[in-house]
What does this fold into?
Amino acid sequence: MTVVRDGRMVLNRASGTTIDGAPASSDSPMVVASVSKLLTALMIARLDGAGSIDVEAPMPWFDIGVPTHPGWADVTLRELLAHTSGMPVVRQAWFDGGIDCAAFLPTLLDRPPASTRGRWTYSNGNYCALGLLVEQVTGLPLDAAAQALLFDPIGSTGVHLTTDGQLPTGIAYGLGVERLSRLGGAGTFIVSTDDVALALANATPAELAVLTWPGVMIDQYGWGHTGTVDGALACAWVLEGGRTVIAATVSGRTPSTGGALCDRIVPAIADDLGVGQGKPDRSPP
It folds into this structure.
């Protein structure tokens, strides 16, 4: 777990060991599950701010090499960010491994957007697509793009993807990272809590205007994202209008979800800061 306040790391804790047997630290890379979406969204916001993309424009499916049904032609980046695009859900199929995001995504887009378009319907496909857009616009693999856009500015290194396996200095994911290969920008990042917290703390007000509900989750404390896959849990939350950022990860199954991890960590830190408001009331769940 890492807490950054006023741009400075004020708390970092870790337990366990790395793959190579060294003591774990808050700078040890771990599977962060759907907290990956927060990193992908921040890259989209940064590219939008630089004028490289327009989040209100239609997704350039042809440019990213993904064939689609004509019904997807006017789906915007904003709809993908907000999970309102009508993207199919297919929850379990994301964890079958074998292929990557670019190969799997076309199987979801060969028919028109679902009738849920316009309503928040959480789907990994939205952020798989956004990750491919980041790669196309930057000309870099997703992890290299994240390094350039998010982590070089804060002097951090070590971010990589589940599709590249795990590093000896990381925390083991017991079920094998190969099963996460299809997720792309929706869930393949392996990164430390130090790096997640510092990257979020470095976000500008203009970028935060892009990272809005329901693409990011909100509660009475602020905003962020949770992450849950079998065997890995994560929480990243921004409090006090950006003054405080919390990132926490667990390699294991306790508590039961990333949301439950946030439920423990966020109010505890908030109480320490004198801004406690009880158990988080999070939306979307």
